[in-house]
Write a structure and sequence with these properties.
Helices cover 45% and strands 10% of the residues. It is an alpha/beta fold. A 6-stranded mixed β-sheet has the order 1-2-13-12-10-11, with helices on both faces. It has a 5-stranded parallel β-sheet with strand order 6-5-7-8-9, sandwiched between helices. Strand 3 and strand 4 (124-125) form a beta hairpin. The protein is globular, with a radius of gyration of 25 Å. Mean pLDDT is 96; it is low at 1-10. The structure holds 6-O-phosphono-beta-D-fructofuranose. 6-O-phosphono-beta-D-fructofuranose binds at residues 165-168, 218-220, 223, 226, 281-282, 367, 511, 514. 6-O-phosphono-beta-D-fructofuranose is lined by residues 165-168, 218-220, 223, 226, 281-282, 367, 511, 514.
């Protein structure tokens, strides 16, 4: 069967995953590898710790502690080739409409392209538009940071609250936390996302409205949570500032693709920062959705972040698969999910500033590849996206690492570490890094029963103290957390997601799975709010819960 994967993309014969030649070979190879221990792999090949590494744009990836051989890699590269990865990469960068269910190009890479690049969507070069918005953001961010942008009563803005959810929140929060070291410490940044009123109440707690700016970030400007919060913010601002509607223009700006709705809300479209339908929500932290990031860290740092993204984009686009970091990471994930039955991937940043990075990656990975049909609409007969989760080290070590070391599940781990800390204090950093290396070592090599006995452990306790090892991990080691490095890390995972989605042949760029719950909530809201007893026609469980809620709140 020949399939056209996207408008304008020359078709390559792509067979369903389990019918690809490399799949059969990989399955047989995985059987042979199933009981091979990392101890044996390292003993047989003492140089693998140097060989199974790759470096790009200052990111060093040690993938030697994976349950693989050179043959495994070769087969995975063959699988990638048979999956049409090279062509898919080219199609994405070219601006083909590879998001075929929404008939959209997928061009987050254009957001960080240099201004002399040319990338066409429907015959228009989008790069000048990107830079125009960046320049507008720069001018605005500079005005806010310098105090030149005044609130309604003439006071400079000191507090910025981003209102958004999903990609319009997780990216900005993660980036703010990650780059807090570079932020203007005289300003306060908060993020209001949840429709739970507590989130809004806490976001404005203790803030002077006269000095507060709301950035309403929503690609569609119709998202229920965001619009509810934005309306509450509007009412709060008017109440605090005496009800003068003209205050809104000074205290609200919008980031959206929907000028009509922005205008209806009462925000002057002169204070709207646009982006485009070819930027997916979860791929948008480097678009105008990053306005709060830019105000926090300044335009120069924001542009440095974009340069970091771009460096990895170029690496992904041009490097051979053997040296290509996102390709390696993506294929290793496929190896464990599809051939070893792993269900999750742990993301373990040993950098406190990256505390929201796992949460950010959850949307990026799971909203992208949490799909059960192929591009052709066929039900897959293999697993797709794993569950991504994690916490910063070393806290996780005193929480869930027990399960990774001695539990019954195989959990591939990504350790992310930095050679330099942004806050040097005594020996903290050596201790931190010693823990990264120790954890990866312990997971891989474990401790045998004989080793435990040799320590004088009584026989009855030996099984409890044995570490089987053979738990795979990657270590990503880089210099220090700068805006550039943050951009590189995010791009690394964006493209790894792309590689996985290509092998699984799913559309990594739509998110129909969030629609049904949204629609049902819209139907239930009036049933909860109605003063008369509503006629309920849901299932008996939902009807019962609604009645109970109505009774209790009354
Ligand atoms: O969760 C669904 C989703 O559409 C995400 O993809 C998106 O990031 C989020 O909602 C917010 O959407 P918007 O930016 O349009 O408010």
């Amino acid at each position: 069967m020949s399939t056209t994967v996207a408008e304008g993309t020359p078709s390559q014969e792509i067979k369903p995953l389990t019918e690809r030649k490399a799949w059969a070979t990989l399955t047989a190879h995985a059987e042979a590898m199933r009981n091979v221990h990392l101890r044996t792999l390292f003993a047989d090949d003492p140089a693998r710790g140097e060989r199974f590494t790759a470096e790009a744009a200052g990111l060093f990836l040690d993938y030697s502690k994976n349950r693989i051989t050179a043959e495994t890699l070769q087969l995975l590269f063959e699988l990638a080739a048979e999956s049409g990865l090279a062509e898919r990469i080219a199609a994405m960068f070219r601006g083909d409409k590879i998001n075929m269910t929404e008939k959209r190009a997928v061009l987050h890479t254009a957001l960080r392209a240099p201004n002399d690049a040319t990338i066409f969507v429907d015959g228009n070069n989008v790069v000048p538009d990107v830079h125009q918005v960046l320049d507008k953001m720069t001018a605005f961010a500079n005005r806010v940071r310098s105090g030149d942008w005044k609130g309604h009563t003439g006071k400079p803005i000191r507090n910025v609250i981003n209102i958004g959810i999903g990609g319009s929140d997780l990216g900005p929060v993660m980036a703010y936390e990650a780059l807090r070291h570079y932020s203007d410490r005289s300003m306060t940044f908060r993020f209001d996302s949840n429709v739970d009123s507590t989130d809004f109440a806490e976001s404005v707690q203790g803030l002077n409205a006269e000095e507060t700016l709301f950035i309403v970030s929503s690609k569609t400007f119709t998202t229920l949570e965001t619009m509810t919060n934005a309306n509450t913010a509007r009412a709060w601002m008017l109440k605090e500032l005496g009800g003068d509607e003209s205050a809104i223009a000074k205290h609200f700006v919008a980031v959206s693709t929907n000028a009509v709705e922005v205008s209806k809300f009462g925000i002057d479209t002169a204070n709207m920062f646009g982006f485009w339908d070819w930027v997916g929500g979860r791929y948008s932290m480097d678009s105008a959705i990053g306005l709060s990031t830019m105000i926090a860290v300044g335009p120069e740092n924001f542009r440095a972040m974009l340069a970091g993204f771009h460096e990895i984009d170029e690496h992904f686009r041009t490097a051979p698969f053997e040296k290509n970091l996102p390709v390696l990471l993506g294929l290793l994930t496929v190896w464990y999910i599809n051939l070893f039955g792993a269900n999750t991937v742990a993301i373990l940043p040993y950098e406190q500033y990256l505390k929201r990075f796992p949460a950010y990656l959850q949307q990026l990975t799971m909203e992208s590849n949490g799909k059960h049909v192929t591009l052709e609409g066929a039900r897959v007969n293999y697993e797709t996206c794993p569950i991504y989760w994690g916490e910063p080290g070393t806290n996780g070590q005193h929480s869930f690492y027990q399960l990774i070391h001695q539990g019954t599940r195989l959990i591939p781990c990504d350790f992310i570490a930095f050679a330099k800390t942004l806050n040097p204090l005594g020996s903290h950093h050596d201790i931190l890094l010693a823990n990264v290396f120790a954890q990866a070592e312990a997971l891989a090599f474990g401790k045998t029963a004989d080793q435990v006995r040799a320590e004088g452990t009584p026989e009855w306790l030996v099984p409890h103290r044995v570490f089987e090892g053979n738990r795979p991990s990657n270590v990503i080691l880089t210099d220090k957390l700068t805006p550039e490095v943050l951009g590189k890390l995010v791009a690394l995972y964006e493209h790894s997601v792309f590689v996985q989605g290509t092998v699984w042949r799913v559309n990594s760029f739509d998110q129909w799975g969030v629609e049904l719950g949204k629609a049902l909530a819209q139907r239930i809201i009036p049933e909860l709010e109605s003063t008369a007893e509503p006629k309920l026609t849901h299932d008996s469980s939902t009807n019962n819960l609604i009645r109970r809620y109505r009774k209790t709140k009354a």
